Amino acid sequence: MSNADWTARGEQVFIGTYSRFPAAMIRGEGCILWDDDGRQYLDFLAGIAVCSLGHCHPAVTEAVCRQAGELMHVSNLFHTKPQIRLAELLCANTFADRVFMANSGAEANEAAIKLARIHSGAEKYEIISLTGSFHGRTLATVAATGQPKFHQGFEPLPEGFVHAEFGDSAEVERLITDKTCAILCEPLQGESGVRPLELEYLQKIRRICNDRNLLLIFDEVQTGMGRTGSLFAYQQLDVIPDIMTAAKALANGLPIGAMLTTEKIAASLKVGTHASTFGGNPVAAAAAVAVLETMLAPGFFEDVGKRSDYFIKRLQEMVEQFPALATGVRGRGMLLGLVLTEKGRKHGIEIVQKLFERGVLINFAGMRVLRFIPPLIVKKVEIDQLIDQLSAVLTEFN
Ligand SMILES: *Cc1c(COP(=O)(O)O)cnc(C)c1O
Q: Of 313, 299, 300, 363, nearest to 53 (Cα)?
């Protein structure tokens, strides 16, 4: 079988929700993927910020295989060792005292929305989120998502979601009513084009939440699990949320999500108020424990930081070399974006396509930014390889 055969077969059977690259990936190791034609790719997408320790990291693979041979599923009617270990690790290394386990980012956010509502009482159910945000594809998380393109055709959406302009704290204040229960945001927006919220803004909304008795929810589905250079992005910001969600890289590729909060707020979710059949599944949880243990080893984030600085420096060279196409670099850790000019944006999709043809995987976020989300373990030489290919492609459009 070849890529072309698989692509043709896939097109016969799938509902057309995805625009896929014409490649069937069959193997991965570190930052490298191989397709069924034997082509090799340098992966600066990492399964959309998921495979943060690289493909098939030995510690994760070992944990998965071991757990799969012992116990795969019992439901949440019982305790399991990996799920308890995972929850303990998350609590020990964040502000949180309590965890609810889900299977994805959207589900973790659903849990956060339900918690914010039940904790705040029947009269207070409105959540303010931001324009450009992305919170998932279930109906409630789509409603929370501040991008109209994700709403179209699915109305009426669940009530109780309003959107404030990105970075405008005065608008947040204007939108607060007697019905508001929470402010929900990503500390750094990934999908809309790697857009960090300013520290002052985040401090301001923390104060607003304190003053107006609202919950601050951070969606760290993308920014969490080391992506921005610390275990969670809020830990570099000195702004502590009341509720936080994680997923994506939590188990380096197995489906899992988590909603974290304090003892006091968690008390509002009582027996029977929320549940998930698969949530915190032992195999996914065992993988997540291995991920956390690897990331929490001394020096891990320091090392990510050094390579991030190097990557930023190399991307800045692209801005200097191609001013007609690129205007700046933004982001943190290994969630970086090369912001394109008006001219560059017109070619964004083609740039990604040309890089794919050269065996390099990246994506185009928010129709304005080339987004780089490689495994956190990406090597300097791999960053150099990416820059060489990127520079060759940008030359074609310059
Ligand atoms: C990917 C993402 C989600 C949705 O996660 P799924 O696992 O696809 O449901 C939610 N929020 C943010 C910030 C994300 O990046």
A: 300
- Ligand 1 centroid–CA 177 distance in Å is 28
Which tokens in the block code for residue 187?
Answer: 């500390």
Q: Each residue of 215-255: pLDDT tens digit?
A: 999 999 999 999 999 999 999 998 999 999 999 999 999 99
Buried b (16+ CB within 10 A) or exposed e, 331-347: bbbbbbbbbbbeebbeb
Query: pLDDT tens across 11-62, in order?
Result: 999 999 999 999 999 999 999 999 999 999 999 999 999 999 999 999 999 9
Other Cβ atoms closer than 10 A to 10: 13
pTM for this one? 0.98
Is residue 130 within 8 Å of residue 169, measured between CB atoms? no
Q: CA 292 to CA 80: how far, in whole Å?
A: 18
Domains and CATH numbers, the chain: 11-43+300-397 (3.90.1150.10), 59-295 (3.40.640.10)
Report the relative pairing of strands 369-372 and 335-340 from DSSP bridges. antiparallel
Ligand 1 site-directed mutation target among 135, 232, 252, 335, most atoms within 8 Å of CB: 135
Q: Are strands 335-340 and 326-332 parallel, antiparallel or unpaired?
A: antiparallel
The end-to-end CA distance of the chain, in Å, is 38
323 Cα: distance to centroid of ligand 1 (angstroms): 32
CB 233, CB 96: distance < 8 Å? no
For residues 117 and 181, the answer to whether their CB atoms sit within 8 Å is yes
Ligand 1 test: best mutation among 222, 335, 371, most atoms within 8 Å of CB? 222
> What does each C-alpha distance from 155 to 151, 209, 349 come to in angstroms?
7, 29, 29
Do residues 311 and 383 lie in contact, with contact meaning Cβ atoms separated by under 8 Å?
yes
Tokens of 330: 């933004």
Q: Work out which ligand 1 atom sits closest to the CA atom of 109.
A: 10
241 vs 218: CA distance, rounded Å: 6
Residue 395 CA to ligand 1 center (angstroms) comes to 34
Q: How far is CA 54 from the centre of its chain?
A: 15
Residues near ligand 1 (Cβ within 6 A)? 104-106, 109, 134-136, 186, 190-191, 219, 221-222, 247-248
Q: Identify the DSSP state of 94.
A: S
Compute the distance between CA of residue 142 and CA of residue 78 in angstroms, rounded to an integer.
32
